[in-house]
Amino acid sequence: MRIVIADDHPIMRQGLIRTISHETDFEIVGETGDGKKALELIRDLTPELAVLDISMPGMNGLEIVRDCKQENLQTEFIILTMYKEEEYFNEALDLDVKGYILKENAASDLVACLESVKGGKYYVSPVISEYLVHRNVRQKKLYEEAPPLQSLTPTESRILKLIAANKTSKEIASELFISYRTVQNHRTHICGKLGLKGHHKLLQFALENKSYLSSPMQSADEVNIRDSEKLNAKTRSVSSKYTVLFTGFAVMVLFVFLFLYLHRRTDTSDLSGLDLSQADINNRIAVLPFVNITRDSTVEFICDGITDELITTLSRFDVPKVIARTSVMRFKGTSKGIVEISHELRVGTVLEGSVQRAGNRLRISAQLVDAATEEHLWAQDYNRDFGDILAIQTSIADSVAAALKGQLFVETKEPPRQVVPSNSEAHSTYLKGRYFWNKRTYESIDTAIGYFERTLEIDPDYAKAYVGLADSYLQLGEWGLMPAHQAFARVDRNVLEALLFDEGLGEAHCTRAAAYHSLAWSWKRAEQEFRMAIALSPNYATAHQWFAEHLSTMRRHDEALAEIERARELDPLSLVINAVDGWLLFCAKKNDLAIEQLLRTSSVDSSFALTDVYLGRAYIAKSMFSKGLAVLKRSREKFPSDPTVLAALGYALARNGKTEAAKKVIEELDHASGQHYGLSNFKALIYAGLSENDLTLEWLEKAYQQHVPWLSWVNVDPAFDHLRAEARFAALIDKMSLSDGR
To answer: What are the structural domains of the chain?
Structure first.
């Protein structure tokens, strides 16, 4: 059987070739990494079988199959995919694709798939079959329990389909020639008919059921029969489901939210360039790190864990605005008072507390404080067993509710619901994992993975532990410590597991969005996931930051700067968010504003490497070589082996005419390359500074072949502006689909 192979990842393609070469009944007659070239090979060679990556430059695998079917070519097809989503699978079935394999299982599935196709049978990776049938069980349950979709009016049905297409209310109003207010009213009516509480739940429902909404409505039984026949697999039941309910923290959130409106202040000042009115300040709250007042180090992760959980729960509200973890953690162990801290964070109310251990007992104190007057609005002490962390958190929330109940008279909305972890040991282990993950070093990420895996051994249904694993593999992939396709597969698998047990986790959607962006280069899917994440967790600063970076690489600079400003409002003292703000200004060619922002960030903490890298690049862009080199040399002294710092320094030396010194930096990167999966992008940057265009393009192409996560920035990095008219550079942008954001 003659085979053509097409996959844009050279390592993956070579692995497929080696696997097939060991099978005597199959002969590889052609291979390529480009979709259009794959179609040409199929036309010219007329193979019996083509193995195609679903996502390639030029044309994707399904587009190739469609063209071949229209031309009545007799080739059969196997599709390789990183995606488990049903819409791709359904499209493949409609095109009569004979095999559908998940990339992460290709080594084990490919031979079985080839044998099935040779025998005239169909083959689907068992992992995909299991996942889709599992989704179908939930979909069937949705159709049985929710009011029927047929109850929607024709206009409501059309609006629901447009929501599934990720249209905003303004876009829907324009398309249907109705007013924005009318669209909002329709959305409210749809929510009522489908039993959905809030427009963000409607968006989630529409996106998750896009494949059903884009086709004629079918009954649950029809949907079940159709998908079961296509998969030829047995339905399995969900292992367990949590009942969605309010956590104790959500109760506390509700009352803290109301309390903000009862205590208004008149004083204001400025911080980090944030332009906030007094009303804005009154609408902001900070949960300060709970203090460990004993010398017992085992209490430390409990303090951080309680702080994190309170921030997470509060952040599910549209208002008040909750200051994110990275900003408040800067005050861990500080001697500053409430007034000074609230001034720096620009908040009107503060929740603080302490933890003390005596034997097997914990004593926890919590208090709600008016930031302007330092008046204690509420305070309480708790004594509990050490192992009963969940009960402690719930008790705090219940007591806050009881203390404030008599003062509440402001009408408010129902807070978002969360899935509650049920196992204290698992929760405690998870908190340890997050404690190490937040250190963001190579060693601490590895330790965190161990704790998250241990959490799931204790409680296999713990959704946040899956997100913790996904976050960890995302970091390893982005840092170049794991191949991008391998990191993406692990991120995607863990996110899917998390959403199975808690569909409302905005953090999970955010992590998947970042993976689609940096590891899979699937730009439209990344944006869809970012919007879902923000709809579910509007106060999650990281989602706004990562979405801003995504928008910048798509050359949508105004949107990017607005999004990063939102992130800074939520996390004003975050070094990474403030540094990224400067970088996005730099990419938007606003060099003076970038330098101003980065100098402000450096004044808060001069030890953060990215701030120096971005500041040095901005100085060089303005031909301020002495300042740029001074900043980057200082950074190199602090981080002598950081490839990001080395590359920026090498570029600065090159731009300053110090050719030999720049080439020595390239040699240093060669020595460091054994520890990373690809530093080609950094070498390309230095060669760009040397104006060696051929070498720059050569190393950019290598970065593309290695799927280096950073490469999306080539679309906006001013260092490559002199190459934008080059045909080879334009071809690279087109191969990555950066020109149209596909």
So the answer is: 2-124 (3.40.50.2300), 135-231 (1.10.10.10), 248-417 (3.40.50.10070), 643-742 (no CATH)
